[in-house]
C-alpha cells in the first residue's frame, strides 16, 4: 500500500527556516504529482505547494517567494524548504500523493 512519511517539523522563530521531507513507498514516485498541504487549528486544510513529474511547481500565494518544493526521484522523497517563516505558517503539514496523506508534521513559528 501507499505510505508517506513526513519529517522535519519543529519550533522555529519568526524569520527562521525549516526543511520538511516526505518519503513515499508503494507508488511509482517519479510518475506522480506530489503535494504539501497544511492545516491550522480551526481552519480547513489548504494546498501549500505541488510538484509534477516534469518538475513544474505550483504554490499558494501566501508562500510564494518563501517556500520551495523539490523532489529527488532517486530517493522517492519530496522536500519543502520554508524560509522567512511567519507565525501564520504554524500548522500541521501533510504530504500527499494519489489521494493518500501522510501522518503530518507540526510546524510552529513563535518567538
Characterization of the model:
It is a single chain. The chain has 111 residues and is an all-beta fold. 0% of the residues lie in helices and 51% in strands. It has strands at residues 3-7, 10-12, 18-25, 34-39, 46-51, 57-59, 67-72, 77-82, 91-97, 100-101, 105-109. The strands form two sheets. Strands 2, 4, 5, 6, 9, 10 and 11 form a seven-stranded mixed β-sheet that branches. Strand 4 and strand 5 form a beta hairpin. The radius of gyration is 13 Å and the shape is globular. The termini are far apart. The model has no long low-confidence stretch (mean pLDDT 95).
Compute the separation of the termini in Å: 40 Å
H/E topology pattern: EEEEEEEEEEE
- Work out the radius of gyration: 13 Å
Q: Describe the oligomeric state of these chains in a short phrase.
A: single chain
Number of strands: 11
Q: Counting H and I runs of at least 4 residues, what is the number of helices? A: 0
Helix content: under 10%
Mean of the pLDDT scores?
95
Large-scale geometry: globular
Amino acid at each position: 500500500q501507499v505510505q508517506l512519511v513526513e519529517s522535519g517539523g519543529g519550533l522555529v522563530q519568526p524569520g527562521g527556516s525549516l526543511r520538511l521531507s516526505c518519503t513515499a513507498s508503494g507508488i511509482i514516485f517519479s510518475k506522480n504529482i506530489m503535494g504539501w498541504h497544511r492545516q491550522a487549528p480551526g481552519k480547513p486544510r489548504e494546498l501549500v505547494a505541488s510538484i509534477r513529474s516534469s518538475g513544474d511547481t505550483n504554490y499558494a500565494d501566501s508562500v510564494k517567494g518563501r517556500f520551495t518544493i523539490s523532489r529527488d526521484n532517486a530517493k522517492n522523497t519530496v522536500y519543502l524548504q520554508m524560509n522567512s517563516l511567519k507565525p501564520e505558517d504554524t500548522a500541521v503539514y501533510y504530504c500527499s500523493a494519489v489521494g493518500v496523506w501522510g501522518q503530518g508534521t507540526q510546524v510552529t513559528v513563535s518567538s
